[in-house]
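Researcher: Next sequence.
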Amino acid sequence: MAEPGAEAPPAPPTTAAAEDVGAQRFEVELEFVQCLASPEYLHFLAQQRYFDDPAFMAFLQYLTYWRRPQYAKYLMYPHCLAMLDALLNSKRFRSELLMESFRDFVHQQQFFHWQHKRRDPLVDALREADKQLTGTLPEKPN
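Model: Next structure:
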């Protein structure tokens, strides 16, 4: 079997290929890459010494194809790509994930990012303009 890094990424699923092995592989890799957004899961991987395994690190490198727009559009937790980059590029990040205090710190920073994330300035400007014209804010889209 070829090294994970040598394989081509699976094609995004199509309606006709939903039951195909390639579609299953796509779904499994999508699920796994999104798990990387969880500091708790990264802590578990660090405790199990996965980051010391060259084959596992090669697999993480292989998963960088999720940055491509045709794949990234399927991500529900795009923050996983930042975590993937940190895992691949920072030995210190990987080693500090062993500590519960660092796991908690990463989780806290992630929460603060989500809590204070700036919305689209254009949407904010349009809502403010609508408020000034009508005197009320329009309802937020679903």
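Model: Residues 25 and 43 are 25 Å apart (CA to CA). The first helix runs from residue 21 to 35.
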